[in-house]
Amino acid sequence: MLFLLITCFTFITFLCKSLSLKPLPIWSSSEVRLLSIWFWNDFLILNPFKKGFLESLMSSNVMTLRRKSFSYRVENVETNSEMSVLDLPELVLECILERLPPEGLCSMASVCSSLREKCTSKYLWEKHMKEKWGRVLGPASHREWLWHISSRNDSSFFNQAKERGLMTYLSQFWPISLVRSNPSTSFKKKVPPAIDSIMSMYLALESGKFWFPAQVYNRENGHVGFMLSCYDAELSYSRRTDTFQARYPPHGRRAMAIETGVTWDRLRVPPLDTSPHDLYISDCLTELCPGDHIEIQWRRNKEFPYGWWYGVVGHLETCDGNEYYCRCHESDTVVLEFKQYTHGSRWRTTHIDRKDHREEGNEADGFYGGIRKLYSNEEISMWRRLWPSDVLE
Known about the structure:
Elements: H1 2-21, H2 26-43, H3 48-79, H4 90-98, H5 102-109, H6 113-119, H7 122-133, H8 139-150, H9 156-164, H10 166-169, H11 198-207, E1 212-217, H12 219-222, E2 229-238, E3 243-248, E4 257-262, E5 267-268, E6 293-299, E7 307-314, E8 333-337, E9 349-353, E10 360-362, E11 366-373, H13 377-385
Antiparallel strand pairs: 1-2, 1-5, 2-3, 2-7, 3-4, 6-7, 6-11, 7-8, 8-9, 10-11
Helix pairs in contact: 2-3, 5-6
Keywords: Signal
InterPro entries: F-box-like_dom_sf (IPR036047), F-box_dom (IPR001810)
Protein name: F-box domain-containing protein
């Protein structure tokens, strides 16, 4: 018995000195206590009165150890349980992406390959294209885009995008730093969108590098010689001012005219898919009646492209304008009035042949081409909104 006590005393002394050299971590404190309890349980096993006390003490310490161990695991789980955007259900993620502006989609596309595939989808960009650009892009613009991407090797926009990366090139868009992705799916290399994608077309329009064809009302900042007219032009967008720069084709020997600061409300999609140098063959001549609103092609001479000018169908000189007795719609001659000019002006009226109308005019008064009747109240109200404040000479 004495030998046993001496041995245990020596062991305990050695253990205390060892533990005093380096503090034990928090997690080990309970285990040390448990070890000491096991030792004393063995040491006092012959004492029946101490055995129950030690068993209850052991049970209490074991439960405490388990609770702390469980709490430690829970804290670790809570620390590592942050959700990634990719952990969201598919439908929820799609709803979020649908509500992002184009800048947000560009930023999300740089996070990882999975988000890139979703953020560059045709469905998302078709919606943004229609909302912002649908009112000014027509068939001619899409043909121009196809030609543009076919010569992409010479395009400074795409060369710059390839050299600097999509997000560097679009540095004006905000970065998304709050999206966490799985490191295994991280999108290390920033790759520009597919050259023939809707996203590429949208970004090219936004950058101002892609010039697209459209028509401009009251060209050259409302120059008096172009009031109530609409001319074809090539347009480039300025994101900084939210306006356009317009390039008009040269007129005769005149150089190309350039106009800046063209606002959205002065643009429209060409109503007819015809060249401004081609005569439009009218299909409404037989139904024209006094009071109808029309647009007619006009050019200064045959070297110039046509512009569209607003007018109304008037009455013949032999008609008093009484609607009950008017027979102007039965005549082969149609009177066109341009009421923005004063009475007696050579630009005030012109006559065309209803049955055999071709380009008519001369070098002094210009040449009148095809006619299109306006059926839309929206088109008519647009011309009325542009009406000059003073009558023209």
